[in-house]
Specification:
This protein has one domain (about 5-120). It is built from seven helices and no strands. It has helices spanning about 5-20, 25-30, 40-50, 55-60, 60-80, 85-95, 110-120. The longest helix is centred in the middle third of the chain and has 19 residues, at about 60-80. It is globular and about 40 Å long. The mean pLDDT is about 85.
């Protein structure tokens, strides 16, 4: 897949999560395995945070609104094939490094385990 099609797929996954059409874990498993696209990696981490913040989102509607708007912003940029803002990429890299996005070479089970390992470590 091309970089543009990968980014558009990620945008669709983010929108699917925000509209309740797909669970975060399922979206993460469907992420394209473009390990060289920092914008895709950043979006992956943003969805991890979305899932981790579930309790806070339920308690604080303003936080939920801001996080939803942020993810829509990311999805819109990615749908257009644009890079995410450099300051955002630097912040995510500083905190997380690379993203353990599942690759096509692994089985479904190993992809699931990789995501759970990442969620449990952080």
């Amino acid at each position: 897949m091309s970089r543009l099609s990968n980014r558009q797929k990620v945008a669709d996954l983010i929108i699917g999560v925000l509209t309740g059409q797909i669970l975060v874990r399922e979206a993460l498993l469907q992420f394209p395995s473009d390990k060289f696209d920092k914008s895709v990696e950043c979006a992956w981490h943003a969805l991890i945070h979305f899932e981790a913040d579930e309790d806070m989102r339920a308690r604080d509607l303003e936080f939920k609104k801001e996080q939803d708007e942020f993810l829509f912003f990311l999805a819109n940029l990615l749908r257009e094939g644009k890079d995410l803002p450099i300051n955002l990429l630097k912040d995510y890299k500083a905190w997380h490094g690379g993203a353990p996005i599942p690759t096509d070479e692994k089985s479904l089970w190993s992809k699931i385990l990789a995501i759970f390992r990442f969620i449990n470590v952080n």
